[in-house]
Amino acid sequence: TPYGFSPGSGPLLDPATLRDQILPRWREGVDRQVKALVKRARSTLETLSGDALYSRLDDPLHRRAAL
């Protein structure tokens, strides 16, 4: 078998372990990434605020960014 594992040879997670230990950590990681993304997006939009965001609508990439 690939990688030396046979089907069913890995560790099994019971629903309680998944619910109580794995999912909360996963959610925390996703939450941190979302907050970082929002911070970056807001920073970018603040930099481009005003007329700068709409100054080059003739360029397809700038137009897409403005939209």
Structural write-up:
This protein is mostly helical. 60% of the residues lie in helices and 0% in strands. The chain has helices at residues 15-47, 60-66.
Radius of gyration, in angstroms, nearest whole number: 23 Å
Number of beta-strand segments: 0
Q: Sheet with the most strands?
A: none
Unreliable spans are: none
From the helix content, strand content and strand pairing, which structural class follows? mainly alpha
Mean pLDDT: 81
Strand residue content: under 5%
Descriptive keywords:
single chain, 67 residues, mainly alpha, 2 helices, 60% helix, 0% strand
Short summary:
With 67 residues, the protein is mainly α. The protein has two helices and no strands.
Topology of this protein?
Layout: H1 15-47, H2 60-66
